[in-house]
Amino acid sequence: MFNGQKEIIHPDIEIFEKGEELGSINFNAIVPIYSQIGNMHQKTIRKIMRNVVDEFVCHAAGSVPSNILKRYGLMELPAAMAEVHKPTETPNSSNSSSWLPRKSLVFDELFCLEMGLALKKRNTGKESGVAFNADSALVENLRNMLPFQLTAAQEMVLAEIKKDMAEPHPMSRLIQGDVGCGKTVVAFIACLIAVENNYQSAIMAPTEILAEQHYLNIHRYAEGLGIRIALLTGSLAKSEKKAILNDIKNGEVNLAIGTHALIQGDVEFKRLGLVIVDEQHRFGVLQRAQLKNKGINPDILVMTATPIPRTLAMTVFGDLDVSVIDELPPGRKPIKTKVFRERDRQQVYKLIGDELAKGRQGYIVYPLIEESEELDLRDATKMAEHLQKDIFPEYKIGLLHGKMKSEEKENIMKAFKSKEINILVSTTVIEVGIDVPNATVMAIEHAERFGLSQLHQLRGRVGRGGHDSHCILLAGKVGSLDTYQRLRVMEDTNDGFKIAEEDLKLRGPGDFLGTRQSGLPDFRVANLLTDASILQKARDETFNIIKNDPDLSMPEHAILKELIKARWRGRMELAEIG
Fold this sequence. Notes:
The protein is of the alpha/beta class. It is built from 19 helices and 13 strands. It has three domains: 1-99, no CATH class; 137-325, Rossmann fold (3-Layer(aba) Sandwich); 336-497, Rossmann fold (3-Layer(aba) Sandwich). The strands form two sheets. The chain has a seven-stranded parallel β-sheet with strand order 3-4-2-5-6-1-7, with helices on both faces.
């Protein structure tokens, strides 16, 4: 109704052609709307699809055994497919996710995914690996050197890792923990156990700056313990790289830390026993496997500081055992977070200035390194000059970004750590792994352009000492109330898991992970947010089948076995069956 009149806004009009029957697939029926294909009209696509469905849908084979379909009251795959393309009853538009044909298709899709992961997990359990002696003098020596005690959560995760490493099968474990919970020290202890058993370890990080950070943090302790570590990145000089590769091959390097450079063809280990992958969501499943293949079934430990919602963990990391470090070291205070608009810029500078006046340091993060013609955004390079000249002339400002050489980055980080630099202007290269206890303020420009989980990661760079810390989210163009409300979530909580759930709702699984996971089938029908309960049921059923029939050799699982092979084909060793 508008002004007392009934209106139809932008109606879709179908032309009724001569000779066409009223009972055709385009009239007097619930009609499917398909994705546009070139300039093809909906009518043409419908006609083609109807013929395909009529002729071939009866040959479709579902992956879900009939006893499970009965248990959940689901339809056989051919019937569900036919009903979705030519419904005989109107789906409930307010809750289409519970419409039986769709629910049946989703269950089939998620069941197939989880079956592949269950088989992969079973395969790992069958492989023979290294049974390490987990009692280590090196670990005890490290504990005596550390200026702090491990938290109860770290000790619990460590106990799980030791138990896995002592098994004669390869470990496959994910450590989840919020920013600053102390995952690196736990990983290093696992490396020491491998070293004491005369095996090498490798830590792979997604960026050079994070690999360097791990190297610097671990190096000082490694020297004191008499173990040799090496840093392998793409920017090394040829001669330097050659010497390191040689030492890794000869077994002189106990622990290799690096980026993707570790999985290159020229890297050979003498006895690789433990592989640690940091910030796993930045790597595809395939890259994890490539590093694993550098040894003979080494133990695998995967770490992430991006808290991953449970539904996502069950898909992306469905083949791994999960440990959570859910406790921050004592003395860590919650970070006070506030959203500001462009009009509040002077207030923001005052807040930063107040912290600097107390002798503290700060970060200011920008989305771009340099000015862009396409994007109307402030950039790190220009702003570093402006801040130094016009805003904070009495303080020293440093600039850090991903295009710099390793040595340059390291020098700037050292100068920041030793308080020679007061404000570090940076891009998101500082998102993970940088630890400066005296830094108490983090300002993020154009905060609306970042995902919540990324903002949470950046926020975690402050609050690492005993001082009150602040995170300032400066939103440039907040086009909608939704964007502003989204940023306000950061004001309300410091809990990474809550933030990750919100982020997942807003951005969807593919974008949330930063990169779509290579090695996982795509979802055609399922939605990981709305179908979480179906995912859990599908997972329970698949793991139950594998428990009772590990090789799918029972007659009733013969079709299932062929289907899983077909659907997972070409996705490396994710589902080798029988």
